[in-house]
Amino acid sequence: MNLKRVLPSLAFSFLATAEAFAQQASKLSVPGSAVTASTYDVTNNAIPANAVDEELSTRWAGKDDGAHITFDLGTPQSVHFIKIAWYQGNNRTTVFDVLAGASTSGPWTALLNRRISSGTTTQLETYDFADTNARYIRIVGHGNSSGNGWNSITETELWGQTGTVDQVAAPTFSPPPGTYSSAQTVILGSTTAGASIRYTTDGSTPTVTTGILYTGPLTLRTTATLKAIAYQSSLSPSPVQTGTYVIGAGSLDPSAPPSGNFDLSHWKITLPDASEVSASTLSRGYELEDTFYTDPVTGGMVFRCPNIADTTSNSNYSRTELREMLAPSGSASAPANNWVMSTSSSSAKAAAGGVDGTLRATLTVDHVSTTGESGKIGRVIVGQIHGPDSEPIRLYFHKRPSDSRGAIYFAHDTPSNSTTYYPIIGEPNQLNPSNGVLLGETWSYEIKVVGQSMTVKVTPQGRAAVTKTFTLESGYNNASMYFKAGVYNQNNTGSASDYVQATFYSVTHTHP
């Protein structure tokens, strides 16, 4: 509401009588619990709630330039003007701003800038501004004319029209969420003119300030849950729209065993009791309840392993993990069952089952351990290259219970078993990275070896790939190597019921 429309004679005054405004607006409800401040005077108990307690004998006080108090209306409302009563307002003036926003994290719109109180009254003074739709109103103080630096308010009232303001139309998805056999290019839209859209594919919920700003069609190559919100400065944001795209489901049958959806003819599996299941048995529909099975919704291949279980020789940790077998009928140690780098000798390459290699997988890490020794909690290996006595790479997902996101990094052993850790998205000493991967979020990895060059690529769904290139030591020439994929639990402490779990939506190994 514009002051000039109501009281033309006060065109040069920003102070008006409450009665004139009250004819066209009503007082908006703001409980004390909905008022917060950047600071307050503890000595005099000048808490934020005092600014709405309808008592001119109490006050909120915040010292220094920029101290602010914020009022939460609960939902976006149409706000027309504000009334403020100033402590000692009859003998000093206060400089202040009034801001409006949809979120306390911003952005904020200035409704009043460097306004000055009258200095003549301790009663409510009314300040008009253009009608605005906002959930949060903030008063920012810039000190008073006495020079003591305090910003002190005895009472505040917000006036406007009750009830939520018009809302932006919810985002639309085209094509609609559903099951598709191949990657889909999704277009987001809103029927509200001028609306912007933010979205996520990592399981988090977008807001008007968080998530990815939509600028054009996005391509979903693996199963993902898409969440989007539309917003426009003069309207209330839309509800968050959610839809799941199941990609590649045409080849994944939730009713089939893992071998019905994946080629397991050149893999064997090691189970938590340290037993092994051969490639031939795996390929005939093998499943093990709560350990190795098909997800009944997505058709993904589920690997689950408890913290406390048996281990294979030379290991301290249990696993539910595939082991590559290039000649599955032979001994695992036979050269034909393994591969070598192309920088190996001619005789080693001739005897090997493959030369160089690439392991690719798309997965979600669904659960990590939450009990046990602090340094072991939340660690799981989901992909490896294994050599005779050491591992050129172990790919880790690591999330502690207090972390919101998991880190992804790899360990490299030299041929003499000296281990170094390398960051991809976070690292052992930098857990919970802001760009980390959520539990249940789809991501892909590729481990590729050509000669002594190893490339590791990690791609969270809907985000750019992170690629690391590494030179393997010449000591790995002629060494028999093999890929591993699944879950290798890196916590052997804690509760017997604790476990790790991952679901694979694709896993391939090739040797050109």
From TrEMBL:
**Signal sequence range:** 1-22
GO molecular function per UniProt: lyase activity
Keywords assigned: Lyase, Signal
Which superkingdom is the protein from?
Bacteria
Q: Does the keyword Lyase apply?
A: yes
Determine if Cell division is one of this entry's keywords.
no
Q: Which Gene3D superfamilies match?
A: 2.60.120.200, Galactose-binding domain-like
Q: Which residues form the F5/8 type C domain?
A: 16-161
- Under which name does UniProt file this protein? Poly(Beta-D-mannuronate) lyase
Q: What is the lineage of its organism?
A: Bacteria, Pseudomonadati, Myxococcota, Myxococcia, Myxococcales
